[in-house]
Specification:
3-stranded antiparallel β-sheet, 2 helices, 3 strands
Amino acid sequence: MKKLTVMLVVVAFCLTSSVVFAKAYKFYIVKDKKGVCKVIEADKKTPKTVAGPYKTRENAEEAKAEKCPAKKK
């Protein structure tokens, strides 16, 4: 009986942790009203999304330089 209980707890833990990791947020590049681009973490695109999704913030920051270059004065 103890083995069964332990096994059920382990299976429940594995299932819940896999659901949490599957719901991992992604990173998107968005542009606000003033034309400033930012990297945000979201689960889906927004109307202001310029590019994305990216797996990591670092990848999104690198792409931001290309997709949304700084304005020259």
